[in-house]
Description:
- By secondary structure, the chain is mainly α.
- The chain has one domain.
- It contains seven helices and no strands.
Amino acid sequence: xxxxxxxxxxxxxxxxxxxxxxxxxxxxxxxxxxxxxxxxxxxxxxxxxxxxxxxxxxxxxxxxxxxxxxxxxxxxxxxxxxxxxxxxxxxxxxxxxx
Length: 98
């Protein structure tokens, strides 16, 4: 998502302060808004139930979640699969956007 945000900034441009501050987050909903991808993802998940499931697994993760040691193996594998699934993973979808 941050690659999509960076693509919006032109060389020698001085971006809006709020835009920059909102970009310095790991909150996925905020990054979706700043990147302009939220409507596109909403359309994609409405038309692709598998992507919708994967997004629902990913969307509520926080930056602090990486320090949780109680996530469990199954949940961790589900998260990795939701991101990296070659057909309906979030990373695959994001690559098409940038």
